[in-house]
Amino acid sequence: MELNLFQVDAFAERVFEGNPAAVVPLQQWLADDLLLKIAEENNLSETAFIVPQGERFQLRWFTPAAEVDLCGHATLAAAHVVFEHLGYAQQQVSFESRSGELIVHRTEQGLMMDFPATLPESVAVPEAISQVLDVEPQAVLLGFDHIVVLADEHQVLDLAPDLSVLQRLDSRGVVFTAAGRDYDCVSRCFFPKLNVPEDPVTGSAHCQLAPYWAQRLNKNHILARQASRRGGTLQCVVVGDRVQIHGTAVDYLKGTIKL
């Protein structure tokens, strides 16, 4: 069996920026353990698998360790492959996923994802978060990740958290964020439980960050910067219970998986 494999840099304007994701188009689903082995072999934070379903596609995401419920950058990468490599002529594509319907629009500026919003709620500071910080957080929130709000963007940039401690938390991961000087917010995202120490650019995290900062800043258009080593910029628009996330993607490689 041979499968096409695309590696795409998402939330990037050129290669070696943004967040790399693998995309594997399938005609039908393979066994879950085989999907996980492919993701582990790819050794990227996410591998997206897509299967056509009429005018739509089914979409699943795997880290090297597990299947996840939502991944923004791999959805952007999957849409890029659908539009650029699979001959899909429509201006929007709909994906069926474990997080419901996800729609990606093709625009003159790139791609726009329409995702469900999650407004994180305030929680007590977990001991694991206290242990990795030498400053007092402004707030600790919980959505599907723990969100740690710091007072200054430099506190976010200077972080070097002990990932073995963060791994004790029962959420997917930890997102540290602060108001930015040149952006509405900056963030860094750590997912040690998923074998992703620091994710370069995380679309799904902004389904939580954008509603939080929109409410705090009293504006629905949020310019966000994920301040990893590779880095990426996201334009987020909160519309009711949805978040529109704008970004671009570029090809890095096309290959063949031989099974």
UniProtKB/TrEMBL annotation:
<dbReference type="InterPro" id="IPR003719">
    <property type="entry name" value="Phenazine_PhzF-like"/>
</dbReference>
<dbReference type="Pfam" id="PF02567">
    <property type="entry name" value="PhzC-PhzF"/>
</dbReference>
<dbReference type="GO" id="GO:0005737">
    <property type="term" value="C:cytoplasm"/>
</dbReference>
<dbReference type="GO" id="GO:0016853">
    <property type="term" value="F:isomerase activity"/>
</dbReference>
<protein>
    <submittedName>
        <fullName>PhzF family phenazine biosynthesis protein</fullName>
    </submittedName>
</protein>
<feature type="active site">
    <location>
        <position position="46"/>
    </location>
</feature>
<keyword id="KW-0413">Isomerase</keyword>
<comment type="similarity">
    <text>Belongs to the PhzF family.</text>
</comment>
